[in-house]
Design a protein that fits this description.
By secondary structure, the chain is an all-alpha fold. It has two domains: 45 residues; 49 residues. Helices cover 85% and strands 0% of the residues. The chain is built from three helices and no strands.
Length: 94
């Protein structure tokens, strides 16, 4: 099948794929929220940790930029993987 030919996927197959994809997405979102809640409980239950985070501005900035760095790293990694899949797809089409 060429890239410019229409492909038909029955509605029930498409619905199953979309449902499975969304289930995985919401599962990862739930795990992220669970991790965030657990971290918040640990930090909130430790007065020493709260005092350290509030009084140490350097630690605050390091933690802030570390989080942003993780997000940027993940976005760039996803773009690299997408580019690799696109390259493979183009090679298969030609």
């Amino acid at each position: 099948m060429s890239w410019n030919q229409a492909s038909y996927v029955p509605a029930d197959v498409r619905d199953v794929r979309v449902t499975a994809f969304l289930s995985r997405v919401y599962g990862w979102m739930f795990l992220g929220l669970l991790l965030t809640a657990g971290t918040a409980v640990v930090v909130a239950s430790s007065p020493v940790l709260i005092k350290t985070l509030i009084l140490n501005r350097g630690l605050f900035w390091i933690m802030l930029f570390a989080q942003l760095g993780l997000v940027v790293h993940q976005v760039l990694w996803d773009l690299v993987l997408f580019e690799q899949r696109l390259f493979v797809w183009r090679a298969e089409v030609q």
